[in-house]
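Q: What structure does this chain adopt?
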Amino acid sequence: MTDSSVPQAVLSGPTTDSTPQPPSAAQIRALESSWIWESLRFLFRIFCRTWLRVTVSGTEHIRPDSGALLLMNHVSYLDPLVAGVWLNRPVCYLARDNLFRIPLLGRLLRRTFVIPISRESTRTGSIRAGIERLQQGLLVGMFPEGTRSSNGQTERFRPGFLLLARRTSQPIHTVGIAGTEKALGKGALWIRPCRIHVVIGPPLSESERQQLSSNNEAELCEMLRLKVAACVAEARTVAATRR
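A:
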């Protein structure tokens, strides 16, 4: 069932896996204002507040008048949901294109403007879509590890995300998520209740952004991995001390 107040073009998202078509800012706003979108977000917030007990700090670092690139750690399928549930704007995530081939999940991903990205073929179309959404004032989320961590640690970053980080002039934030691996880790069949905290760090400083022009990709990846890991450590501390 769809919301008749929102055009089908708004709800359909990318038209193909290989050449996603970015929605306009107006389309994103139309989706936000639809009662279905608001209802789902409201229900998931209740679920996060009660069963998962999710809290977030650092939302004040995200400017309301511009887009932003969010670089996050990845330990659970819950990460995209809990990281964005308290933000007032949808987060357009980049995700593996094979997820779009899962019947129900693929339909949901397209309707929430997730950008498919292939590990085998060129990523130009996906990166271009990400840049356009950032320019439109939207939030774009990436998981530079490329897959879920098996041990809860922030693992080595794959350099592919640098293509987008280097091309955008919008703020870049590191984000740490702690607790989702206990709620729904690798191999888990159901969501267990636990304390989850998300830390959104301040945007990269001017000197840190200048480092993005360096040809030493390994050094850049490690610098940003350590910043994400610091956010994760802070998130774990908060989650552990909460009652």
